[in-house]
Write a sequence for this structure.
């Protein structure tokens, strides 16, 4: 199987079901009800898919003061990969309800481990079901011996608040993936303070999509090059509310051939954990 490194289409994935080098991960999750995604997976999922819970498996909720969904430690995360039967040689496909925002978190977690063969199912569960492709309610059997996965995160692609402050002071670009009204501070449904990091620009992650699927690579490239205004992607840090949906922008950039942007892992919820940090409102 040729490696899928950004997106895979539902009809193509359906042909590959059952291949020994393939692992499918269901990342459906609702911020309003953290149990909803797992309940949906138990009821019906892509055959063979394991379930990854955003807060239990893709975050370290024991860490405090660094945002609502703290980045996990590599050892804990790779141990979970091993339990799912995922090794560095595995082709991983992640999906969620549809827009790819939750699946992109797993995509970037693996990418920062150096795992190239990981992709998001374009259109997610919604498209899979709409095409009438196979579904299952059977939980996959875990491997008798966990796969071996020894790796560390690329720290150069993960920024904390201090690194973001230095980045902005040096003239770097910070791109916020939240909705425009949240960025402007007109509403804030999740965090205690509304607004954005002074100096950030706004690129809501749904702008990467058209009719529920990612835009064509050339269109994404044109849009991001206009946003970057001549900057190299490595000069860009992305953020959102808690370091989850920002990964959607990272995926879109890589789909467009623009690799190397960084993630502010704590994002807005991490920024406002320190009340002395400045807050901006408006466009």
């Amino acid at each position: 199987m040729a490696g899928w490194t950004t997106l895979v289409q539902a009809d193509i994935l359906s042909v590959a079901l059952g291949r020994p080098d393939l692992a499918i991960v269901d990342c459906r999750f609702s911020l309003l009800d953290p149990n909803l995604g797992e309940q949906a997976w138990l009821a019906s999922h892509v055959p063979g898919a394991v379930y990854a819970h955003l807060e239990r498996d893709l975050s370290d909720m024991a860490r405090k003061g660094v945002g609502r969904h703290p980045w996990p430690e590599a050892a804990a995360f790779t141990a979970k990969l091993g339990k799912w039967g995922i090794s560095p040689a595995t082709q991983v496909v992640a999906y969620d309800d549809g827009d790819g925002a939750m699946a992109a978190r797993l995509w970037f977690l693996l990418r920062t481990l150096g795992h190239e063969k990981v992709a998001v199912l374009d259109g997610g569960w919604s498209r899979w079901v709409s095409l009438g492709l196979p579904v299952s309610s059977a939980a996959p059997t875990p491997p008798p011996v966990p796969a071996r996965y020894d790796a560390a995160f690329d720290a150069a692609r993960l920024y904390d608040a201090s690194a973001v402050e230095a980045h902005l002071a040096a003239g770097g670009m910070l791109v916020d993936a939240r909705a425009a009204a949240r960025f402007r501070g007109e509403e804030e449904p999740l965090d205690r303070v509304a607004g954005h990091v002074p100096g950030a620009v706004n690129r809501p992650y749904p702008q990467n999509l058209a009719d529920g699927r990612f835009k064509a690579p050339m269109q994404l490239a044109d849009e991001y090059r206009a946003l970057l205004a001549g900057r190299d992607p490595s000069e860009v840090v992305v953020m959102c509310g808690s370091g989850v949906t920002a990964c959607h922008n990272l995926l879109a950039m890589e789909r467009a051939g623009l690799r190397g942007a960084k993630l502010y892992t704590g994002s807005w919820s991490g920024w406002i954990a320190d009340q002395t940090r400045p807050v901006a409102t408006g466009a």
Notes: The first helix runs from residue 10 to 16. The chain has two domains: 7-130, 155-271. Residues 7-130 form a domain with the Oxidized Rhodanese; domain 1 fold (CATH 3.40.250.10).
